[in-house]
Design the sequence.
């Protein structure tokens, strides 16, 4: 964890920024270049001593060729002045995390002026993850690398807790599948996954309306809400208004369908707001009807 003065005195900045800017890219660029230079990525891409005495560094050509195949949107060589798209940078960091190890110097080879190397995988990964996450925290970016080197998005703690502890036991396998897929995709750092999470959550909401007995969908939806709050109560009326409003939002915006009459969402903030609003409503329904939550 950072021990910088501003963190100690004022607290860590809230992680609210969704994109990696030129300044942060410059720091990440330097972390990666340093590890190429000190041989850390030789764990996966070892450069062999010309005398055949074992690895002595990182084979940069092998590193770049495999990187270009596994992350085809990245430009090699990197330029500190050209910032890749944020999802591409996160793919790059995962690639690097999968290749990194702490280089351990062995015998010195005086003729070529290098040491032969071995690698401590665990120590190298821990240090790389810590260095990347420090830069993310100091720049208030809402991403982190996990201990296994996977990138994930950070969401505000109350939302994270609600998502992490929610149970989906609706009695309908497809509804449970949609809710679980929505949860996992919402935490993804990729914008397309978050849009997909919103769609799946809205699909789950529409299926929830049909889980109670009734002559038609409207009667089934009313029966569902009647189980959450007493019919005629103020809260039951509020639930009815919210259900109607959420249904209208789903029909008006490009969430589940793509008709030309539907308005597209124009920012990830809008996606996050609608997901959080719908998830709060769905969770109340699940808890109120004994279906998890």
Sequence:
């Amino acid at each position: 964890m950072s021990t910088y003065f501003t963190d100690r005195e004022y607290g860590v900045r809230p992680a609210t920024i969704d994109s990696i800017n030129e300044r942060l890219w410059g720091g990440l660029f330097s972390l990666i270049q340093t590890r190429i230079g000190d041989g850390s990525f030789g764990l996966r891409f070892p450069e062999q001593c010309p005398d055949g005495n074992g690895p002595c560094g990182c084979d940069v050509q092998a590193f770049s060729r495999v990187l270009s195949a596994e992350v085809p949107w990245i430009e090699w060589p990197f330029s500190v002045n050209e910032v890749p798209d944020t999802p591409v940078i996160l793919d790059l960091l995962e690639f690097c995390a999968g290749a990194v190890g702490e280089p351990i110097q062995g015998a010195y080879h005086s003729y070529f002026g290098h040491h032969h190397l071995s690698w401590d995988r665990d120590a190298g990964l821990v240090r790389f993850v810590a260095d990347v996450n420090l830069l993310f925290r100091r720049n208030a970016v809402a991403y982190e690398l996990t201990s296994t080197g996977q990138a994930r998005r950070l969401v505000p703690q109350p939302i994270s807790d609600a998502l992490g502890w929610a149970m989906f036991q609706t009695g309908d396998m497809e509804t449970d599948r949609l809710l679980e897929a929505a949860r996992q995709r919402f935490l993804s750092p990729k914008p397309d996954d978050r849009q997909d999470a919103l769609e799946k959550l809205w699909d789950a909401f529409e299926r929830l309306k049909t889980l109670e007995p009734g002559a038609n969908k409207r009667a089934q939806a009313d029966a569902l809400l009647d189980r959450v709050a007493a019919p005629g109560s103020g809260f039951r009326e509020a639930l009815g208004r919210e259900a109607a409003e959420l249904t209208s939002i789903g029909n008006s915006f490009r969430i589940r369908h793509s008709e030309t009459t539907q308005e597209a969402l124009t920012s990830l903030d809008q996606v996050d707001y609608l997901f959080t609003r719908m998830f709060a409503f769905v969770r109340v329904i699940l808890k109120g009807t004994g279906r998890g939550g």
